[in-house]
Amino acid sequence: MLKPTVLVTRRWPEAVEARLANDYDVEFNRSDRPLTPAQFREALTKYDALLPTVTDKIGPEALDVPKAQTKILANYGVGYTHIDVEKAKTHGIAITNTPDVLSECTADLAMTLMLMVARRAGEGERELRAGAWDGWRPTHLVGTKVSGKVLGIVGFGRIGQELAKRAHFGFDMQIVVFNRSPVAPELLARYNARQIATLDDLLPLCDFVSLHCPGGAGNAKMINSRRLDLMKPDAYLINTARGEVIDEFALTQALMFETIGGAALDVFEREPSINPMLAQCDNLVMLPHLGSATTEAREAMGFRVLDNLSDFFDGKAPRDRVA
Ligand code: DGY
């Protein structure tokens, strides 16, 4: 029997690529460079399945073909706001993502960022590497204690819950939550957490605010200058969700004029290009979108795509179908 034809848009972990090569008639993008809209259009007419990821912009231009051969976009990653879902649906293309398997590692990274910015770890490392450290002194790079503080979690899905677990059990933090839908009382009770009705009511309560909501137009610039002003002057903002959720210009103003204590970002508005003003803020920690970057999570994401794909081609409903 002929195997379905599959295009993988970026390099994946070796173990996953090996299984893909075994199970499908697969083409890998050996250059590991993102495809252009024209390359996507061509691929849509050639392959039964495309396996894109979060750096692939699959907007109206990339999907503008008269008739698609592709039946499924099996995305490597949990976020899929880079795909124009409505346009894909007009071609009858199914879309799947990879939730769950990266939640722990992304929460670990949110905790890392929280600790780094509060304890000035980025500043310390930069100073040391620059050969500028002149020894211990009581007033050197004094930061803020994390344990016992109030943490606001915006978006209480799987990653937000994993962060609550770490912060509550590991750091004795008090958890407040903003979530669009009501959170089950037993889930809140697990972390001794409180759900706050609005984001505007949550922000002034927090020493740390960590974002775990989806990106996309609905949440674009959700953290703007008005909301930054609602934060305590010594509070920290953490973002491992999507860059567009924060108005970056407003954030640089808040950091430069020190109207908040600091911020730590793993995601950016126009990544991989970084607003140069951000690099000038000492009270900012930046990482290059590393939330799920562990061998364990990246392999599990790939195998989850394979599960979705085999279900789809076996005529079953893929467990992670989002459209
Ligand atoms: C995702 O999966 O959406 C992350 O941003 C990459 O791990």
Please provide the count of β strands.
12
How does the helix and strand content classify structurally?
alpha/beta
Question: Reading side by side through the largest sheet, how are the strands ordered?
Answer: 8-7-6-9-10-11-12
Ligands in the model, by name, code or SMILES, are: (2R)-2,3-dihydroxypropanoic acid
Determine Rg (CA atoms, Å).
Answer: 21 Å
Instruction: Count helical runs.
Output: 12
Low-pLDDT stretches are none
Residue-averaged pLDDT: 98
Largest sheet: 7 strands, parallel
Estimated share of beta-strand residues: 5-15%
Distance between the termini: 28 Å
Give the H and E element order.
EHEHEEHEHHEHEHEHEHEHEHEH
Helix content: 25-40%
The general outline is: globular
Identify the notable features of this structure and list them briefly.
alpha/beta, 14% strand, five-stranded parallel beta sheet, 35% helix, 323 residues, 12 strands
Notes on the structure:
Helix content is about 35%, strand content about 15%. The protein is α/β, with parallel strands linked by helices. Strands 8-7-6-9-10-11-12 form a seven-stranded parallel sheet, sandwiched between helices. Strands 2-1-3-4-5 form a five-stranded parallel sheet, sandwiched between helices. Strand 11 (about 260-265), helix 11 and strand 12 form a beta-alpha-beta unit. Helix 4 packs across helix 6 (about 160-170). About 40% of the residues are buried. (2R)-2,3-dihydroxypropanoic acid (DGY) binds near residues 54, 77, 79, 291 and 292.
